[in-house]
Amino acid sequence: MTQPVAMTTPAPELASTEPAGHEPANTVQPGNSPEQLLAQLSPAEKVAMLHQHSPGVQRLGIAAYQTGTEGAHGVAWLGKATVFPQPVGLAATWDEDLLQRVGDAVGREVRAKRQENSSISLNVWAPVVNPLRHPLWGRNEEGFSEDPVLTGQLAGAFCHGLRGNDPARWQTVPTLKHFLGYNNEVDRNVSSSQLRARVLHEYELPAYSTPIAGGAVGAVMLSYNLVNGMPAHVSDLVAEHLRQWPGGADLAIVTDAGAPTSLYKAEKYFPDAPAAYAAALLAGVDNFTDDGDDSAPSIAHLEAALERGLITMDDVDASVLRMLRLRAATGEFGEEIHAAQSGADVAEQAGAHRALAREAAAKSVVLLANNAIPTAAEGSTAAPLLPLPEDPGPVAVIGALGTHVLTDWYSGTPEYALSVAVGLGEIYPSVQTVGGHDVVALRSIRTGRYLGTAAENESLAASSATAGADQLFELQDWGGGEVTLRARGNSRLLAAGNDGYLYPSATRVGGWIVQETFRLHRDSDGSVRMQHVGTGKWVHIEAHTGSALFVAGDIEVADRFTLRIQENGLEAVAAAAAQASVAVVVVGNDPHLGGRETLDRSTLELSQRDQEMVRVAREANPNTVLVIVSSYPYALGTLADMPAIVWTSHAGQELGHGVADVLSGTVEPYGRLPQTWFAHDDDLPDILDYDIISSGGTYQYSSAEPLYPMGHGLGYSTVEYSDFLVTDHGDAWLEASLTVRNTGDRELAELVQIYAAAPDHRFEFPRRLLLGHARVMLAAGEERVVKVAIARERLATFSVTSLAMLTEPGEYIFLAGRSAQDLPLSASLVLTGAGSCDREPGDTIRAEHFDAAHGVELVPETHLAGTAITVASGHRSALAYYKNWSALPAGPGELRVLDGGSGRVSFERAGAAGTWLPWLTVEVPLGSGGVINFDLPTVVNGLPADLRVGISGDVTLVALRLGKH
Fold first, then answer.
1. What does the alpha-carbon distance between residue 46 and residue 795 come to, in Å, rounded to a whole number?
2. What are the angstrom distances between the C-alpha of 257 and each of 271, 290, 944?
3. Beta strand 931-936 with 644-648: parallel, antiparallel or unpaired?
């Protein structure tokens, strides 16, 4: 994690990198091809190369190597680097060209750092392509969009930038994360993501297949979770899908950190480490990230697997070869040519990256609302609050996020960081800042002394009889009962020291386990007890010394404090807002708190403190702009009626310039939401329910009225759409054409979006499906015809009868507009062609290929392959629906079940008005051998009908065959 950075000015230049006109390196020198190197390696040397940290082989000139340089939105954890907006912010630009340029900048800086330190890996662990299925996911900031294809397109562009333009040598090797079905932090390494066939093919896989097909992906990281009951790290989906795509066979597959151990410890899917490692290798894993930089345990596990015959050296060779090819792609085994750069060249690239960071920050800002403030003058027409005029008068920037730039776990360390207040201060002469936090003193009730310190290297002690400057703390409430305390004396956050005492020592909230936050537990008498969130320990004042010590135990071990408010933050907010012509209230999250890797959010709501701060400011000044700086969407409740609302992600070092450029109108609003902002927590399905079709998840299937829909974003001008036409150009593609006119008096950066619906579709089609989009820049009064090419396959759904992605024949409704909800134009088109086949009597149907289900759990058919269905935990029975039969089956039937369970399987056929008619019940006894034969009664005058299969008891159904051909 990197720290909150206060307002600063630009610092030294970035490290040097290769000149733009460098000669491309020979990819591989004679005798050093991956195949030749593999042939010369000993078995022990090969096995050692399967760990993240592999030793060098001096006799072959192979250097030590490690996979994984983090680069989600800038080079992370390796010192100073350009920090761009979080990925969800980059996605808000909907701009593939920009994403590619950002990726290129990140790739260049990785290369530069490798020139300084050859141990730095050119294998970049980015981007994250898990679709943003659920807005409470803790890692929302790392993904791009809730739409999988848009995710894949933006990720592909970022990967092309990381890869670079040299045809002979990859600048870096991008790694897609995390394959697959990973959108929850709660129980993330033991929960099973239920991905039925349609959800798998239509929603999950396209986020990976789209960028891989682009040819700029070199590796894929697997996810912690299980998929349909099988750990993703040993899933047959890698071989069945990922390895089958163009370019997939050569992709290097890496594990997530610690995931190999999880296979046999947390998940308990294997009896021991050698069995787990062997299964992962056979499933497609090429490199194990386990035990940090200590490769010895992994090597021992793999050697034991070889000794037990669980894997062979041929299996090892296949993985080592893929890793050698990954390294060779970057020119590692060739004559890399590095020309020194002049100081002018270094400064030019550093300046270019700063300018790019500013462009990205500005383009990622989304104008959510912009309304006029009612005026008292009769007959007057007030203009919208934004953009701010050239001279708005005094501006109050309110909130801690207005004066700080926060970074996340996967951020780099910026050379500089410009806050919103600094950005606005460069444009407007009179900018005042107010943090909005209370300033408090803490007096120990037991000792009567105030908590404080004289220096940052000294622990806190309750030793002062009065509350002076060294006894004051800025109390920041981040929501969920979690607060930080910043010492007024040295501006450092209180944190746990390694010796168990409390220190004012931290410059930021950070670390894998946060050490800078507390919970204040209020007693009935109003006193508070302090609990350290990271350790769960309580603050206790030692006798005699008065030192503040962390102690374990229940609440009774904690000292009680009187919390005296020395400065009321909300009163300061009201005063500052009242004195200003415009109040800019900046709220949001710290990326390390409330929702992050290992922690999902519990609610869509802003913290109550932030909500109250906004209300206080607006009551004091109706000219209040709400700026939300966050890693994820919020439900705003009554705050949604604020006159002007702007959202940005934590946008990196140029956050302040980006926001100020948009608020001032220097830059036209460009950003559009890459995911839905839902209005209520109740609008969301359970975070562990991955079936977006049945649960009504994402913009595609949700019927909830959103606060702001997918694709939403306003400009400072007005627009009119007309003349919408959709043309079918044959098997491959369609074309949408429409006229867009800027009806205002300012330039407009319009994002035209095309969606589809198909109410009469054979299968349940999305309520809205994004087909394509186009950016058009329009001068005031300008009108242009916009054409959007649509791949016909974008309309495809997975057919559970034909077992393929097919565009079904029939009528499709095409919709054009500014978001998934604001769609004023529509056109219909009837598409022809071969669609899904019907289910035929006598066909063997895999149980997992149902049309719909209730109470069903997808589970492995065998330990390492296949999928079957059974009764889900918490349900007495399960129902699976199999529709679209060409004829009603009758006669001999067969069930394939997993041996070892007993129960019943029942068959019903659809009757009139939604009823179901009993047909046959089959008993499944213990020891059935896995195959149950039966006769399905003939129905007199039976017409084709949908069938429903019920399961009760301990039965796991693999497949069924009904009737005969």
1. 46
2. 20, 6, 52
3. unpaired
Helix (H, G, I), strand (E, B) or coil at 770: strand
Which residue type occupies 623?
N
**Which residue type is seen at 675?**
Q
Handedness of CA 149, 154, 158, 164 (dihedral sign): positive
- The pLDDT value recorded for residue 964 is 86
pTM assigned to the model: 0.94
CA-to-CA separations, 882 to 644, 838, 946, 947, 948, in angstroms, rounded: 50, 11, 6, 5, 6
pLDDT digits (tens, 9 = 90+) for 51-84: 999 999 999 999 999 999 999 999 999 999 999 9
- Would you call 688 exposed, middle or buried from its count of C-beta atoms within 10 A (0-12, 13-18, 19+)? middle
- Are the beta carbons of 162 and 103 closer than 8 angstroms? yes
Identify the DSSP state of 200.
I
- How far apart, in Å, are the Cα atoms of 956 and each of 503, 692, 848, 895, 925? 57, 24, 11, 10, 12
Q: What are the angstrom distances between the C-alpha of 852 and each of 596, 691, 693?
A: 33, 10, 9
Q: Tell me how far apart the alpha carbons of residues 72 and 120 are, in angstroms, rounded to a whole number.
A: 16
Crossing angle (nearest 10°) for helices 273-283 and 313-329:
60
d(CA 88, CA 104): 18
**DSSP notation for 2-48:** ---EES----SPPPP---TTPPPPPSS-TT-SHHHHHHHS-HHHHHH
- H or E element in which residue 617 lies: helix 608-620
- Amino acid identity, residue 241? H
Note whether 237 and 865 are within 8 A (CB): no
Summarised one tens digit per residue, pLDDT across range 120-154 is 999 999 999 999 999 999 999 999 999 999 999 99
Q: Which residues touch 298 (CB under 8 Å, ≥6 apart)?
A: 50, 51, 260, 277, 288, 290, 291
The tokens for 393 are: 């008068």
